[in-house]
Amino acid sequence: MEKEAKKEAFRKYLESSGVLDALTKVLVALYEENDKPSSAVEFVQNKLGGPTLSEYEKLQAEKLDLQMKYDDLLAAHQEACRELEELRNSVQMGAACKVMNIDRETPKDNDF
């Protein structure tokens, strides 16, 4: 009983979301094709708006290329941040040394 209710609820969900209509239209289009395609799955994917296998492979290759570029840029960014931090530290050290030298060179009241 519960299993039948779940099936019915799922069927209503598919119907209300438009999935049944979309699938029916695609299957009718496939049925009406005079020259049946070699890949029915690819036909259905194309009709539903999905990429072809070659488009999918091209997108995968592009994604991999972009991921590699991203990784390279991220590494360069991290290196630049490290160098910037080193420069900041060296500037702060230089400023501290300068202050220390000024303090040493400033005459004291007792020096006169």
From TrEMBL:
Protein keywords: Coiled coil, Nucleus
The keyword Nucleus is annotated on this UniProt entry: yes
InterPro entries according to UniProt: AMY1
Stretches assigned to coiled coil: 56-90
Cellular localization per UniProt: Nucleus
GO cellular component: nucleus
GO molecular function: transcription coactivator activity
Family from the record: Belongs to the AMY1 family.
Designated name of the protein: c-Myc-binding protein homolog
Organism, as annotated: Aristolochia fimbriata
